[in-house]
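Researcher: Please predict.
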Amino acid sequence: MLKILIASCVLSVFAASINAQTMDRPAMDHSNMDHAAHMKMTADAQRQAEVSERGRDVMPFDLAATTHIFTRTAEGGTQQVVARKSTDAAEVKLARQHLKEIREQFLKSDFSGPTHIHGQDMPGLSDLKAAKPGQIAIDYKDVKGGGQLTYKTADATLVAALHKWFAAQLSDHGKDAMGGHALHRPMN
């Protein structure tokens, strides 16, 4: 019984220490979690923190003030970056600027930004880098609160690569990203 009490106290101190380091993140729910699940959740949180840190080198906007939205389609998908407050003119401008710049880079098969942020082995990235000019159409448009890139290709391998790439970004950006159209806000 004493060992359980001591272990419980040690875990409480450890949890408080972690919570103090991650005040802006919701606490992990350990109640129904086995050790492997806990370790995966901890590794995911560490990976997301590393990606966020490297993202500052590539993305001019504040990740915490924006949301990445990745939507898969039959021909590829859409990638949006929108300010959490659509009235935040500075973040909106920076998100739009960034998406326009990466569109130009991607059309030249320059994926150095995602490589720097997510790593050389990011799922889907090697196939996207290998695409020939014109195999993937990438269109930009302003949306309320930010910008959007639409990726389209007739090549099934590249569609699959885009979907893997989107899934990796969703995982790596954590709370700063979401899938689907929940925040899809076209310009009026």
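Model: DSSP finds six helices and five strands in the chain.
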